[in-house]
């Protein structure tokens, strides 16, 4: 609660051994009690101010209003997410006359993705780019297909937590926590198993078996973004200096160049 929080701060800042400080503390206690007396009104700060104006205590009014603001601020946690919607969807808000049912529809997740690539996996996204009606709704999903020994390489989603469910086959999955622990959490998932990858953490899925695997993942953003670690480090444009990468990975520049050539 904000009440004991503010009082505890006063006790730390104003020692009881000083008589003047003690008097100030008693005033603070009285002020806070008055704040809580009026806290159930529709506008507690205004009610307190009116009460004190009537008793010609403007100086005390200013102090109580300040304390009230501190108390209210201490009970209001910061939140971060996609923009809040102001209507049924942002698409409708922008131009209701142009909205069609297709703005809320996508077809094709029943079709396997083409895994004929270097990593042996294919991600099919369904985000705001595919369904405009997702705008401001804070959710999207993907289908991921894995060939035998296919990998969804280590990557992060800067704007979303991911919840993945295996629909077919099995997957070795994992994520790594932030510095300094860098703890690797890994598990084998079978059909029907669910795993969560926290927002922003590096994670991967690997089909370490001889049959195809399929997964569906929900993400807590209309546009979660993806940063594939290898591509970002070795395939950036313009490239990161060989000196930087050689020192960062404790390898020679020749090794850096050999890895970069694959991206």
Automatic annotation (TrEMBL):
It is found in: Secreted, Extracellular space, Apoplast. It holds the Pfam family Cupin_1. Residues 107-257 form the Cupin type-1 domain. GO terms for molecular function: manganese ion binding. Mn(2+) binds at residues 155, 157, 162, 203. SUPFAM superfamilies: RmlC-like cupins (SSF51182). PROSITE patterns: GERMIN. SMART domains: Cupin_1. Oxalate binds at residues 152, 157, 162. GO terms for cellular component: apoplast. Its main location: secreted. Keywords: Apoplast, Disulfide bond, Manganese, Metal-binding, Secreted, Signal. Residues 1-23 form the signal peptide. Belongs to the germin family. This is Germin-like protein. It comes from Zingiber officinale.
